[in-house]
Backbone:
């Protein structure tokens, strides 16, 4: 297994986009990684369409030292995630440790709130382009953008490239 020694956190909140949480989660489990869903205090969260995901831990109880990467799915969940100090702090700490911070779609809002995109090349769903630029990011319209430890994509059709980029960043084939 290519990621058998890696621990990946995937953030969750109500309103997450189904594919953007479950596709990476299943892909990384398939690659042998240990994947934990991290929430903001509830035991489960509902997607935009009402699908539930169970949570393994609360953001207030986890530490960047315990993970090798973090994935932030989009949908409207990031607008709720960014209001949780522990979750934003976790993302900021992962970045400070130069660990991969990967987001897709509207999850760029979390990167903005963690103040980690200034002078970095990034992408997101087009509707938050101005937010990304106003936060100092160099926004581009590409399937996947890797700038150091930051990995970003635009939308669900980009998920194969997004997951491949994160697997590569973690040393997988």
Residues:
């Amino acid at each position: 297994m290519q990621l058998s020694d890696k621990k990946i956190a995937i953030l969750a909140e109500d309103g997450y986009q189904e594919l953007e949480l479950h596709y990476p989660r299943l892909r990384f489990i398939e690659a042998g990684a240990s994947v934990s869903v991290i929430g903001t205090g509830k035991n489960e969260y509902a997607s935009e369409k009402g699908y539930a995901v169970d949570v393994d831990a609360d953001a207030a109880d986890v530490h960047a030292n315990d993970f090798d990467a973090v994935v932030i799915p989009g949908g409207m969940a990031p607008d709720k995630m960014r209001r949780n100090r522990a979750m934003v702090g976790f993302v900021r700490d992962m970045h400070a440790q130069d660990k991969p911070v990967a987001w897709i779609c509207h999850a760029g809002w979390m990167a903005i709130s963690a103040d980690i995109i200034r002078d970095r090349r990034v992408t997101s769903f087009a509707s938050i382009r101005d937010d990304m630029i106003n936060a100092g990011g160099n926004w581009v319209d590409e399937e996947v953008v890797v700038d150091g430890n930051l990995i970003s994509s635009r939308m669900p059709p980009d998920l194969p490239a997004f997951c491949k980029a994160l697997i590569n960043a973690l040393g997988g084939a």
In short: The chain has one domain: 7-169. The CA atoms of residues 106 and 121 lie 16 Å apart. Helices lie at 18-30, 77-81, 85-96, 108-113, 129-134, 159-169. The longest strand covers residues 34-39.
